[in-house]
């Protein structure tokens, strides 16, 4: 048997040349399969965790909380307007004294006639008292008793939006005054005044959001 013949081959095979062949161990495919399976499990767990994080930050988790405890924040709602302590009177229930504090003649009568067409009752028509005569720089002043501040004066104010509102504590009765000032041009357009009356009688509720 030659010196180059590996033991155990019984001399049947002869190796020639000056290099020994490398004897490789059989590949362990079992380990490879296990590693691939483990990697798939790790990736699956990581992907599931990522989806959970996405649901948390995008609000997807609210569905689960709503089904379990019912603590989901509700959609934006509108609060019901609180009823007014004093109902606003209609124009036909308000008596207006139209007084002219300017140097333009006939202005009080013209304004009174227009207010009458819009449903107001007209009282006195004439010149303003010395307290206001030629002393009102704006479009006008609305005067009335203390009780008219939140009732008759706001309704009359829809006809002359820029007018100042004042009350007199010692004043008797329910009639109010419209004192025409130097800045007066005309009453508000009837369509605008009607819209202002509707909004005044039915104010829009303030939008609110349901708390968590």
UniProtKB/TrEMBL annotation:
Annotated TM spans: none
Boundaries of every LytR/CpsA/Psr regulator C-terminal domain copy: 94-184
InterPro entries recorded: LytR/CpsA/Psr_C
Coiled-coil annotated residue ranges, if any: none
Originating organism: Streptomyces lomondensis
Region named Disordered: 1-20, 64-90
Superkingdom assignment: Bacteria
Protein's name according to its UniProt entry: Membrane protein
């Amino acid at each position: 048997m030659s010196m180059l013949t590996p033991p155990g081959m019984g001399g049947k095979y002869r190796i020639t040349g000056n290099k020994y062949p490398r004897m490789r161990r059989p590949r362990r495919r079992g380990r490879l399969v296990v590693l691939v399976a483990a990697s798939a499990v790790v990736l699956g767990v990581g992907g599931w965790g990522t989806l959970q994080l996405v649901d948390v930050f995008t609000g997807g988790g609210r569905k689960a909380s709503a089904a379990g405890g019912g603590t989901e924040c509700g959609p934006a709602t509108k609060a019901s307007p609180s009823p007014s302590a004093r109902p606003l009177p209609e124009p036909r229930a308000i008596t207006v004294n139209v007084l002219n504090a300017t140097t333009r003649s006939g202005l009080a009568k013209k304004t009174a006639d227009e207010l009458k067409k819009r449903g107001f009752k007209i009282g006195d028509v004439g010149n303003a008292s010395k307290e206001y005569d030629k002393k009102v720089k704006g479009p006008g002043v609305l005067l009335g008793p203390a009780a008219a501040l939140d009732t008759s004066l706001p309704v009359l104010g829809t006809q002359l939006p820029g007018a100042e509102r004042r009350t007199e504590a010692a004043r008797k009765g329910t009639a109010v005054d419209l004192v025409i000032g130097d800045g007066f041009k005309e009453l508000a357009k009837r369509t605008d005044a009607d819209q202002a009356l509707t909004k005044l009688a039915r104010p829009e509720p303030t939008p609110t959001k349901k708390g968590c």
